[in-house]
């Protein structure tokens, strides 16, 4: 890694400038640029942030007292705006540097974004407060801009540079600029560099490993939105099927199927704990509860489950299929809430309208049909298939992020931990199983640098009744990189079974499965990986 090759120079620099305090001023960063960009402005100011009751950091209010100001975390905030000449893009990249050398832990951490947000200023607050130098970029559009605002240069024409920026280019540049700024400020580069993201951030972690394999020593990728070209359009499948069947049930009906599938498959892993550790083995058929009644509250009413409801739910679990029945992508796992992908608003129990997942309809309208006002509710299965193939054909190499070849990442000594909730209601974990299998087939030594932990019963990036590793799993990445501690398991935490409080159970590296051997579902020693 460049980090290692420049370590010696870094140490020399550190000794050379150790007496000079870092200066948080634009002049410190005047040489901050890259060969392929034109910097339009660079600003550096001392920023103050405070943690709220929820642990989230915000900027200190302008009318703060001197005591509040003294208690706040201070850092040097560098904001650099640039363009790729000829591409008409404007990228804002935010860099945070602990104000004092004594507050810096010598490391660099880039946080990942979510949805259409590549990153923003707020994301660097947490890492900076924890002592890291950090960076994040808007990649050319803010979260206040819709995909229609930036995805087309004109009706019918994709804004390719903007999509490249979002998919990969601006992320790599942000990392390079952030590390350069760290060197300019402290006189030495970071000793270790990390990426830490979930969802879109999990996709970003994968594109970094695939395409910029020297950039990070350690990567944490949660619920990765990889195979973007198939998965994002696939998220529309539940609404498409509901529209075609003319059966748009209220959420209580969907919940009844989710609950019944949990009951049906909970014990496959050996223990009835409200969590399915092997959803891919669950054979529960939605048809088996047709005729049962569901008491709904919002809207109020009693509904009898129909064959059409079952057909719809089985199709969601199956995942998108072509008109001829060919596999297109994976469905949600059984036991998972269907409330995100088939959200609805209802006037009464028998009159509901779907609210599709907007990242998916943005993708279909803006990037596939290239018509921001597309009426996606009138899409036929034939339309869906055509758009599906277009998505694969035109976007896989831009944003697919499913290249199984991680050879360069392995050679540069990188370590990567991936985790995915098995009750993820947005990104199906079956796509992550698929990527792992293909990467393993490509390189049998995969597990020596890339590990995937499945988290039973956990929803999108956290939450749910299952075993959530999100609060400590980043520590496992750091320990693997810096102390060569191979993560054979990672702790997952969730509500205790049949008792109050929480339980902590060690999650297993795929393809091993968390299996109960007894006697107590709240004891880690009652589970093994096999
Ligand atoms: C470090 O920063 C604090 C404020 O956070 C300041 O009071 C202190 O003087 C600084 N120390 C050094 C060595 O610059
Ligand atoms: C987005 O809009 C909100 C509300 O108007 C505003 O507070 C925020 O600063 C905007 N964000 C950006 C990055 O422009
Ligand atoms: C599904 O299970 C949840 C959690 O146990 C419960 O709150 C909800 O009422 C159930 N819904 C239906 C329709 O069975
Ligand atoms: C579910 O059961 C129905 C009715 O028995 C059957 O027609 C259908 O093929 C089954 N579906 C699956 C996915 O097993
Ligand atoms: C469903 O849609 C409503 C209204 O837009 C929204 O408040 C809610 O968060 C959505 N639910 C899910 C699970 O996305
Ligand atoms: C865009 O979609 C709208 C609504 O479906 C349709 O009326 C219009 O003709 C489409 N425009 C083009 C250029 O296809
Ligand atoms: Ca279970």
From TrEMBL:
Its EC number(s): 3.1.1.-
Pfam families (UniProt xref): Tannase
Similarity annotation: Belongs to the tannase family.
Protein name, entry field: Carboxylic ester hydrolase
Magnesium keyword on record: no
PANTHER family: CARBOXYLIC ESTER HYDROLASE, FERULOYL ESTERASE B-RELATED
Protein species of origin: Neoarthrinium moseri
Domain of life: Eukaryota
Matches recorded under InterPro entries: AB_hydrolase_fold, Tannase/feruloyl_esterase
Keywords of the record: Calcium, Disulfide bond, Hydrolase, Metal-binding, Serine esterase, Signal
Signal peptide limits: 1-20
Enzyme superclass (EC): hydrolase
Example GO molecular function: feruloyl esterase activity
């Amino acid at each position: 890694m460049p980090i290692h090759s420049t370590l010696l120079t870094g140490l020399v620099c550190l000794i050379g400038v150790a007496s000079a305090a870092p200066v948080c001023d634009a002049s410190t960063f005047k040489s901050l640029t890259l060969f392929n960009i034109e910097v339009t402005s660079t600003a550096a100011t001392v920023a103050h942030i405070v943690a709220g009751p929820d642990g989230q950091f915000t900027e200190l209010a302008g009318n703060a007292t001197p005591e509040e100001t003294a208690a706040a975390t201070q850092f040097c905030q560098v904001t650099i705006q640039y363009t790729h000449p000829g591409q008409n893009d404007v990228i804002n990249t935010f860099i945070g540097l602990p104000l004092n050398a004594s507050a810096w832990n010598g490391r660099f951490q880039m946080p990942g974004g979510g949805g259409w947000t590549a990153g923003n200023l707020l994301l660097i607050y947490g890492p900076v407060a924890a002592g890291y130098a950090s960076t994040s970029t808007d990649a050319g559009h803010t979260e206040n801009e819709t995909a229609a605002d930036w995805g087309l240069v004109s009706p019918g024409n994709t804004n390719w540079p903007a999509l490249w920026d979002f998919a990969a280019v601006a992320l790599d540049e942000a990392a390079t600029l952030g590390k350069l700024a760290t060197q300019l400020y402290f006189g030495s580069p970071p000793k270790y560099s990390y990426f830490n993201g979930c969802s879109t951030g999990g996709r970003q972690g994968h594109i970094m490993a695939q395409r910029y394999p020297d950039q990070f020593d350690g990567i944490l990728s949660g619920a990765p939105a990889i195979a973007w070209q198939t998965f994002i359009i696939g998220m529309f499948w539940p609404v498409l099927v509901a529209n075609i069947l003319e059966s748009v049930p209220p959420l209580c009906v969907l919940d009844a199927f989710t609950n019944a599938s949990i009951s049906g498959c909970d014990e496959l892993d050996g223990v009835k704990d409200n969590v399915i550790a092997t959803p891919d083995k669950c054979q529960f058929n939605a048809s088996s509860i047709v005729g049962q009644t569901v008491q709904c509250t919002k809207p109020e009413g009693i509904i009898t489950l129909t064959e059409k409801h079952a057909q719809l739910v089985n199709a969601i679990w199956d995942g998108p299929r072509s008109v001829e029945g060919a596999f297109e992508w994976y469905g949600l796992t059984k036991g998972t809430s269907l409330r995100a992908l088939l959200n609805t608003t209802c006037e009464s129990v028998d009159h509901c309208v779907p609210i599709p997942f907007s990242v998916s309809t943005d993708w279909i309208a803006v990037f596939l049909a290239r018509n921001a006002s597309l009426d996606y509710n009138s899409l036929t299965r034939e339309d869906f298939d055509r758009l599906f193939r277009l998505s694969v054909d035109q976007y896989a190499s831009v944003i697919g992020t499913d290249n199984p070849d991680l050879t360069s990442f392995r050679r540069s000594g990188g370590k990567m931990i991936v985790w995915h909730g098995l009750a993820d209601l947005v990104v199906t974990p079956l796509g992550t199983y698929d990527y792992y299998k293909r990467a393993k087939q490509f390189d049998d030594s995969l597990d020596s640098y890339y590990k995937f932990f499945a988290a039973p019963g956990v929803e999108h990036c956290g939450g749910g009744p299952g075993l959530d590793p999100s609060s400590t799993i980043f520590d496992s990445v750091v320990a693997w990189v810096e102390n060569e501690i191979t993560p054979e398991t990672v702790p997952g935490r969730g509500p205790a079974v049949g008792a109050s409080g929480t339980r902590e159970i060690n999650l297993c590296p795929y393809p091993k499965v968390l299996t109960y051997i007894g006697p107590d579902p709240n004891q880690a020693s009652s589970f093994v990986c096999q």
